[in-house]
Amino acid sequence: TQYATAAYTDNILDEFTYYGMDYIKDKYGVNWQAPSPKDKVKPTQEIVNDIAGECTLNAMEQYEQFPTALEDHFGGSQRASVIAACSGLTTSIATGNSNAGLNGWYLSMLMHKEGWSRLGFFGYDLQDQCGSTNSLSVRPDEGMYRRVPWTKLSKL
């Protein structure tokens, strides 16, 4: 529960996410208040890098500019989760693709660790980075597996 409750302290997650919503509206024309399929951005790696990268860098800058935010989110894992959540939310809303959002989440974790050298206390950051290498390896919820009968999968 320490990860879930801290994320909602003082509306910090809201602030970071609203920044992301403004970013996708200004740059890509995605109207998050009135979603439409025609507004969706194609979920490419470049788009994930752009949106998640912008959200992550903004959040890290905000934590550095306002040290009291660091006091609200006193653990590195809490900060990492909040930053990754706003990055993943913004990416998935812009693309309409949950896998793109997941990749935005893990890209944010990697950027956070690269920028601040760690994610959690005493090396307890496995839970924050354990999925990035597997997020695109098998995608059973979309793509080819839906269209190919299971009897022919072994021949692929």
What does this structure look like?
There is one protein chain. By secondary structure, this protein is mainly α. The chain has a single domain, classed as Up-down Bundle (Methyl-coenzyme M Reductase, Chain B, domain 2), CATH 1.20.840.10. It is built from 8 helices and no strands. The chain has helices spanning 2-6, 12-28, 45-65, 67-72, 76-95, 98-116, 126-129, 144-147. Helix 2 packs parallel to helix 5 (76-95) and helix 3 (45-65) crosses helix 6. The protein is globular and about 40 Å long. The termini are far apart. Pfam families: MCR_alpha. GO terms for molecular function: coenzyme-B sulfoethylthiotransferase activity. Residues 1-119 form the Methyl-coenzyme M reductase alpha subunit C-terminal domain. This is Methyl-coenzyme M reductase subunit A. It comes from uncultured methanogenic archaeon.
How many domain modules? 1
| CATH level 1 class label | Mainly Alpha
- Relative strand content: under 5%
Task: Specify the CATH architecture.
Answer: Up-down Bundle
| N- to C-terminal distance | 43 Å
Protein name: Methyl-coenzyme M reductase subunit A
Domain Methyl-coenzyme M reductase alpha subunit C-terminal: 1-119
GO molecular function: coenzyme-B sulfoethylthiotransferase activity
Pfam families: MCR_alpha
